[in-house]
Amino acid sequence: HLYTFEKDLQVVSCSVNREKTLLAASLVKSTEEGRRNELQPGSKCLTLLVEIHPVNNVKVLKAVDSYIWVQFLYLHVESHPLPQDQLLLISEEKYIEQFHIQVTQEDGNRVVIKNSDHLPRHRIAEDFVWTQWDMTEQRLYYIDLEKSRSILKCLQFYADQSCDLMFEAPLDITLSDSGFKLINFGYDYRQDQEKLCKYLTLCVFTNHTGSLCVCYSPKFDSWEQITYSVFYFHKGYSKTFTAALGSAGSHGTQGITFLNLERYVAVYLPGHFFHLLNIQHPDLICHSLFLTENNKTNDTLPHSSFQSLSGSLVLDWYSGRLYRAFLDQSYLLRFLWNTSLDCEKMAILHCVLSCGQDPQFLEGQIIQWISENVSACHSFDLIQEFIIASSYWSIYAKTSNVDTILPYSSVLTWNTVS
């Protein structure tokens, strides 16, 4: 162990810098039963900055009566380590500070904090009600309320220690200023104390093609139906979806789950519905998949509470395990053979081809399926759609602007749900 803390202390948050020379940790006192106290007057949350090598210097960054979360920036530098580390402190009092930490090497490998008594810092956000950290892009998304409007803002951090406001945009959603929610800042103890289905779900998803989506589901009290919205920022519009929950199974306490699958967003509630939204081409409903409680797919969905991370990674809160989510090509092929709806045939055809696994075998399977089902598809030309879709997905990974070169689909309008 590098460090051990007193048994009556519990870790709220911790983060290690890129070079693994500094550790930031936020700690609170626990009761004798092992539960965190409610931070009554006199209680303290200690936020510490610790040198890892050598183990001989601990700096108290904050000692306050509110919870603090910490996050080091992992800024990319080509040739040499950064002379200065950047650390974010996120406070339960709804402000975010950025610390600038200079380090120096002494006697070979000894890395120590320079001028530890005078660490420069400044506030980069205040009065937010929701915030999300994007580790891959080193971006901070947060929402504050301006004249009762929910404004989404995005800060981009750079290696020269600066940060820019990339954009701000209003969201047509209603948020309360009585609390706040953190996404991708580690485990949040409050998720054990709250029934997830009674609270809103909101997350930002991006991918390497430049797509940016905000997925939002308000809190709901009724189990008759659920509503969620997706803001397609890269397209300039949003869509709202409603799913009937019916009477399938036990409702439990889990809320709606959004998973980032790069070109798709999966939206589901186990035992009730599963939606696979095409975020690059969301215009037509036939390019997305909508399955109800009657479909057997819902029986295979995990019932754990997941948090979607960057790069299709998902975190299981209860087990603490990381998984990589992906679309199962074999299952999709079986689904393609069994479905009778033309809209599902269109969605699954593109979904299977987008997987890109063993294209020769895949195309052989699809050609066989087309030969046996060509007369059973009435809304579009199966052969024409396969030629266009296979051409599109064959160069997708190699070309950044494939949409300017090839059409995505032969279907321009869709007026049926068959």
From TrEMBL:
Cross-referenced InterPro entries: GSAP_fam
Signal peptide from the UniProt entry: none
GO cellular component: trans-Golgi network
GO biological process, any: positive regulation of amyloid-beta formation
Protein name: Gamma-secretase-activating protein C-terminal domain-containing protein
